[in-house]
C-alpha cells in the first residue's frame, strides 16, 4: 500500500510540474505579446517566473498533502 501511495504522489507531483511549466510558458508568451518583454530577455524572465510559480504552488501543495506524522 505504501508503494502505491508513493507512486500516486510521484505521479501527482509530475503532473504539477508539467502544469507549472505550462503556466510559466503562457505567462511569458503573454508578456511578449503585450510588449512587456523582449524576446532577448526571455531566458532570465522565464527562470524567475518559473521559480516564483514553482515556489508558490509547491508551498501550497505541501500544506494540502497530509504527512506521515498526521496518521492515526
Observed structural traits:
single chain, 2 helices, mainly alpha, 72 residues
Can you tell me the residue ranges where pLDDT is under 50 for at least 5 consecutive residues? Answer: none
Net shape: elongated
Number of E-state strands: 0
Order of helices and strands: HH
Q: Structural class, judged by helices and strands?
A: mainly alpha
Q: How many DSSP helices?
A: 2
The radius of gyration over CA amounts to 16 Å
Helical residue percent band: over 70%
- Measured distance between first and last alpha carbons: 16 Å
Percent of residues in beta strands: under 5%
Mean pLDDT: 82
Instruction: Characterize the main sheet.
Output: none
Describe the structure.
The chain has 2 helices and no strands. It has 72 residues and is an all-alpha fold. The chain has a domain at 22-59. Helix 1 (2-33) runs antiparallel to helix 2 (42-64). The chain is elongated. The chain starts with a helix and ends in an 8-residue tail after the last helix.
In brief, what are we looking at here?
It contains two helices and no strands.
Amino acid at each position: 500500500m505504501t508503494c502505491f501511495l508513493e507512486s500516486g504522489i510521484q505521479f501527482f507531483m509530475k503532473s504539477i510540474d508539467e502544469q507549472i511549466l505550462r503556466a510559466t510558458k503562457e505567462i511569458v508568451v503573454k508578456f511578449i505579446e503585450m510588449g512587456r518583454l523582449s524576446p532577448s530577455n526571455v531566458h532570465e524572465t522565464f527562470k524567475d517566473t518559473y521559480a516564483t510559480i514553482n515556489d508558490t504552488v509547491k508551498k501550497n501543495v505541501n500544506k494540502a498533502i497530509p504527512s506521515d506524522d498526521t496518521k492515526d
